[in-house]
Design goal:
The structure is a homodimer. By secondary structure, chain A is an alpha+beta fold. The first copy, chain A, folds into 3 domains: 13-173, no CATH class; 182-247 and 283-489, Rossmann fold (3-Layer(aba) Sandwich), CATH 3.40.50; 584-688 and 716-802, Galactose-binding domain-like (Jelly Rolls, Sandwich), CATH 2.60.120.260. In chain A, the strands form 8 sheets. Chain A has an 11-stranded mixed beta sheet with strand order 8-3-4-7-5-10-11-14-15-16-17, with helices on both faces. The longest helix of chain A has 22 residues, at 437-458. Chain A is globular, with a radius of gyration of 29 Å.
Chain lengths: 806, 806
């Protein structure tokens, strides 16, 4: 285990004393203690819960060893000088490290250092003030199992012994503490009246909104975390599957055109809206409740800490009005309407019929959004409206432009693992409104038309960027963002690809907001229960600053860009910039390394396979990827790609950004696609693709409240021969841009430039970089198994690699 | 989905009326309703929670379709005759089946039948009494997601609206309902003083015992479910790993002996016990509490239903005294001491020092045990003492004799997947007492001696049944069992093999107790959240009968032996007997089918491999198993086994019990082992080995209480060529029995008889049965890669197959 904590706020003796008093470790009695050992014993007695007897607490303390000779009770009862080593012997055991297995008695300080756990700057032996400061820091230090000791203690029932005795909210070291009784949460449903009528029934769409909030919010308003999740009222998986497109189709020649961006961006006339409902009455009493919601565990964590949590699934979902649109402005309005209600700027009703208004009187008007993937996407969507009340977005693995999710440079390009999915499929999957049989039957025909429109407008035929995709490109409005933005993205995310986070990151760069980003080594995952990083603490610090207006230095403490190292496990570091395209190094693609024959400075590859091999690759993308990169001369794919391998690296090199591919190439047909991968070649141990559970440890998000599984990436047990760093694809007819189609003549050479996905990736000394050029991507592109030959002119082809400056 | 419910108790109109009154669906107001539609509407209004407004409830009802034309609200408000089809249209939607996807309106009755959901015997149109009976039955019918509708409704908050308004306990259709507020559970720790001193410190061992019980138990005693889990105070995985034995060792010649069973069973002198502690005081107030326990979700289910749940890990675990022994009588006493305390027959203290006694005043004295694997094993252990208070055991995948867990017929034989594990490894793993540093250091040397003794006594050298194993054979005392016994075992359990359940089943056969058994198609798993079987309801019915003394006909309703079919999914059926060895059919092993050469009526096979192939099989047991059965002539293993394939079956045949192997065989050395597998050969779809989650559905075990993931076995997507039905192994020197060693001369022929694991297995027409004879089992036996040749005399070798009578 290697600990990385960024969210420990600076403190001094005064702060430590005040805050320890607020959480009842210090009081008038302790002011009288004049011996450091006695004070530490008092802390331990308090730690083991006032609700337990003195005998039990003594029993607990005497299970801990303070030195080779003495258990902690014996040691402290001597009232002899308290050594720093003894303190940290005890500390490590409280932090759940086991003597013998994890560390040896009297090796505690070295061990703290090795584990990267903070050590208080104190005298040895320790004085009274040292004990206070060291104890304060210890409570803010992560245990072996990925939470601060005070959070662990809360899970043991420290605050729950008597919730009523603690301030609410209770801020400790800049973070809000779990002092709210999660057994007493209020759960209610309202219907927000949104300014749209997407099912065209002459009435504004009502959006079912689920609220969970502490009872205390009845008296004192609280901040709100809102998760807009189109999934959380259920999904229609069978419908989605039925609609999934066949991808075993050939590429076709496209009619050249001169479409311009302004053609695509033409504003459409806004439809006239129906009148708002007449408010017939006003109440504070909700009429509907709900049972177990589909929750995000990070929201659960905040529910114990004085935040309300709101879920709303938006138009076309169960018990809401309207139809799904997969990312257009009406889905944005689904999110902003709820935020407006939470900020006091929009009407909601207690049910669908009686027009009885209910206000979010319990909201302090400060709203954050949270969630991953589509849930993160709707955060970007909402933020780009500049909606009032939205203060902070925790955007995880989100789409910034739907074209970058389902398309690439004029090609249909699936999210990794979801071949054949498209905007229409997702709309059908999330149209949970149909789970109500009456709603389904009433709206069947209208919905069918809506879905057909999406299918047509998404245009799988061309793959071009068009008006449909432009309406789903949030980057267009990025400058309107007013909320602070915290982006989290997996550098190995093949579902929502990293270009999405890079683009929005650069789009918000000029804005005067707080901007943070974490780039981890995961795929499309959450990272709020990892052993090596205090992500949850950082979010607490940041939200507490943004929504509770607590001055806790969050913006300084949290690095602007934090990256997880790919070459070692449990390693995180801050960087100054990401994907700035500054230090490009050009490598000519001069000589293939895979035996491809070069004639007249040209090299060719095919794109067709025997039917059997084709089918094998279709059904096993891993096999395809493996053969693509390291399949020998007998791999079926051997004639279908060209590999260029560069010199063995003499020192570690870090790639930061997008690799640019410059090819002069021809197709034997009047259509064609080109793909490229940048590869890290070299037998080595690498991080596994999936995080694993750590010792089956559970994180308690409160006291007997919800929990999470602690996870971490482990290094592979066996060496692997390579790892893909990045990939990219282009339709040769979209060589100018994604919206405009250029002509393509068979066997004519064209200059084709395209970028691979951005990454931050350390290539180790002794490894080699390689570039693979090919056409069909079995995992993501359409797959026609067409008889096409591609030729690269090696005298005019190169890659530019974004090496880190150093 | 195919539903199997055994736990629906018989009822009539009177019962239905009374019980619906008790759960507030009927009351004085409803007595006045004279229209069937109006009554059903009332039921639906009540179903959608009194805590929600009338408008919301109307909204909910109007989402349901009652007929092609009308939603349920419109339909029922007409007060027209209520058709049976309309009732079941509504019913299926309440049961969470979706119109369109799962069924079509007006096809409801056929659909109910197809899904094997019970239909009330009512008139059409329905009268008032019909509505009452049908609604009552519906509440007891399983939803799409594996729980009764009343349990689903409880999860929606039906009882939680006002817990105080319901009787406690509340029995509905013979089962106890979740009317206990799980937010108000009492959690306390006591230390039971057990009659033993396993760490030899001159004091009786104290056993930490964790109690969770409803607050109501303070006033009215409740029954107790006790889970004795050596794992639930933590485990020392690293220690276990370190101790794991090398299995790449050769078999050796054993010195013949004439050991008898009575030599092995000699009673040892009981050590004198230290005096019990003096009771210094008495209290009802516990001093220690605990936070999130390691729970079994079935126990969680019962916590909402008026049962207390008790966990105790036993000697040598964290915060208890003593040392682990892996299954001897002291671990049995660890369990019985707690039961005795729960039944008022033993002393417990509030802490380890003050001798302050605390009674289980909240226990009604009726104790059941639950848990799987080691947790089930300790149930058999406790039951075989006949301890007073223990009324019922829910024994899942348990060991009935530890020899059948770690040994077989004179061979070291690992639990599948745990090569090198043994009694000492398990003892080290579960010795969580050492997680307390002070306890670890204090007891280090004594514990080392104890562990060394286990290592010596378990005797991996011989593999024979000896005094060590005899002390760990609960079958010896099976006749003392007084508790009712419910066994659950996976027919594919290679960890705790099915011989364990078969032996205990037959051992309790003559006893005058209630005996039930479920044999499922899983490996070493729990089955309390399966879609196709109402297992949890059955346990509720059974426990409510045994521990709450409710007359609910549990023993008649629950089949004595219930088996899950292996040939189809979601299929369960009752059988009359298991493994009775009655209808044996003999097949001569006359002609190998795998090309093995026969000379002079003899066939030989080797047991050695190239080093590379040996290592490959060592690291991939699946590859070995596959090659063993269907590896062609180029499989490395081709000379290392002989296969006998029988005629293609003309009709389905069911194996029920143990296959007997009769070989006349020689070894080329003065030692040898023989193994055999019975195989179902034939390309076909078969159940996957692991159950899968169903629609990601969660089962709510109460209201906002804990939850479980709904699972079910699915058929494989691809056909598989074979499935192992059973296997067995024997040391040729143990051909008489497991405790006595016979001589073995190289190249001499001996008659060797041994049994394969019992099974209930349907072999489909068109398939073939096959028997494979070999020596080393790469997954379970020691693996010496020794140059041994085995020869079978085919003129005197056969198998006897236990075909079902039919």
């Amino acid at each position: 285990m290697k600990n990385h904590q960024y969210a420990i706020a600076d403190y001094n003796l005064k702060v430590a004393k005040n805050e320890l008093r607020a959480i009842h470790f210090l009081d008038e009695e302790t002011d009288k203690i004049d011996n450091p050992s006695a004070l530490l014993k008092h802390f331990l007695m308090t730690y083991f819960l006032d609700s337990q007897s003195l005998a039990i607490r003594g029993q607990k303390i005497s299970q801990i060893m303070a030195s080779f000779e003495d258990d902690a009770l014996t040691y402290l009862d001597k009232n002899a000088p308290l050594s720093k080593i003894a303190f940290y012997n005890i500390a490590l055991q409280l932090l759940q490290f086991t003597v013998g297995e994890d560390f040896l008695i009297d090796n505690s300080i070295t061990k703290m250092q090795t584990l990267n756990l903070p050590i208080a700057d104190v005298h040895d032996p320790m004085n009274l003030y040292d004990v206070i400061c060291a104890w304060y820091l210890l409570l803010n230090t992560h245990t072996k199992y990925g939470v601060t000791l005070i959070d662990y203690l809360a899970g043991e029932g420290y605050f729950a012994q008597n919730y009523s005795q603690f301030d609410k909210p209770l801020i400790f070291n800049g973070k809000s503490m779990p002092v709210y009784d999660t057994n007493n949460l209020i759960r209610e449903v309202v219907y927000v009246e949104a300014p749209m009528d997407t099912d065209n029934d002459g009435k504004l769409d009502l959006l079912k909104t689920e609220i969970i909030r502490p009872k205390e919010s009845n008296k004192k308003a609280v901040p709100v975390i809102f998760t807009a999740s189109p999934y959380n009222q259920g999904t229609n998986d069978a419908d989605g599957e039925k609609l999934t497109h066949n991808v075993n189709l050939g590429l076709k020649h496209k009619q050249p055109n001169t479409v311009s961006l302004s053609d695509i961006s033409k504003k459409e006339k806004e439809p006239e809206l129906p009148a708002a409902r007449n408010v017939e009455g006003k109440t504070r009493k909700a009429e509907q409740t709900f049972s177990r919601e589909q929750s995000y565990t990070l929201n659960d964590y905040f529910l114990a800490r004085g935040y309300a949590v709101v879920y709303s699934a938006g138009i076309g979902t169960y018990e809401s009005d309207g139809f799904r649109t997969t990312g257009d402005k009406y889905e944005t309005i689904s999110a902003t309407a709820v935020i407006e209600w939470l900020a006091g700027n929009r009407v909601a009703f207690t049910n669908r019929t009686d027009n009885n208004q209910i206000e979010a009187y319990w909201s302090n008007g400060n709203v954050a959004m949270s969630g991953r993937s589509y849930l993160g996407t709707l955060q970007i969507a909402a933020a780009t409206t500049g909606v009032a009340g939205l203060k902070a977005c925790l955007v995880e693995a989100a789409i910034s432009s739907w074209y970058d999710y389902y398309r690439e440079n004029g090609l249909v390009m699936a999210p990794g693992g979801f071949q054949g999915e498209d905007a229409d499929v997702l709309a059908a999957e999330t149209y949970s409104r149909k789970k109500s049989a009456a709603e389904d039957i009433k709206n069947e025909k209208k919905w069918e038309i809506q879905l057909t429109n999406i299918t047509n407008e998404q245009d799988r035929e061309s793959g071009d960027y068009n008006a449909f995709w432009n309406k789903r490109n949030y980057l267009n409005d990025a400058k309107k963002i007013k909320a602070d933005m915290f982006f989290i993205h997996g550098l190995n995310d093949e579902n929502v690809k990293p270009i999405n986070v890079s683009n929005i990151w650069h789009a918000v760069d000029p804005l005067n907001i707080s901007k943070k980003m974490i780039l981890h080594q995961g795929q499309h995952i959450y990272i709020n229960a990892f052993q090596s990083l205090d992500f949850t603490d950082m979010v607490n610090l940041w939200f507490t600053n943004k929504l509770m207006d607590v001055e806790n230095d969050a913006d300084n403490l949290i690095p602007n860009i934090l990256v997880q190292d790919n070459a070692t496990d449990q390693n995180w570091y801050a960087i100054d910039e990401f994907d700035e395209d500054e230090n490009l190094k050009r490598f000519e693609l001069a000589k293939p390394s895979d035996g491809s024959k070069v004639a007249d400075d040209k090299v060719s590859f095919s794109d067709s396979l025997d039917e059997k091999d084709f089918e094998a690759y279709c059904s096993d993308a891993n096999k395809w990827e493996n053969d693509l990169v390291i399949g020998g001369s007998d791999a079926p794919i051997n004639d279908n790609r060209v590999i260029f391998t560069f010199d063995k690296l003499l020192k570690d090199v870090t790639i930061n950004g997008k690799t640019h591919i410059h090819l002069t190439a021809s197709s034997s047909k009047d259509f064609g696609m080109l793909s490229a991968q940048l590869i890290d070649l070299g037998e080595d141990f690498r991080l596994n693709a999936q995080p694993e559970s750590v010792d089956h440890a559970k994180i308690q998000l409160g006291y007997l409240w919800r929990e999470d599984n602690l996870r971490e990436f482990k290094m592979s047990r066996k060496k692997t021969p390579f790892k893909k760093i990045a990939e990219g694809h282009i339709n040769m007819q979209n060589r100018n841009n994604a919206y405009q189609v250029s002509d393509l003549q068979a066997d004519e050479f064209y200059e084709i430039n395209f970028d691979l996905q951005p990454n931050v990736y350390k290539v180790k000394a002794g490894h080699q970089l390689a570039v693979v050029i090919y056409a069909t991507d079995f995992d993501k592109s359409i797959r026609g198994n067409q008889d096409v030959k591609y030729t690269i002119n090696l005298s005019d082809s190169a890659v530019e690699l974004p090496f880190n400056k150093d």
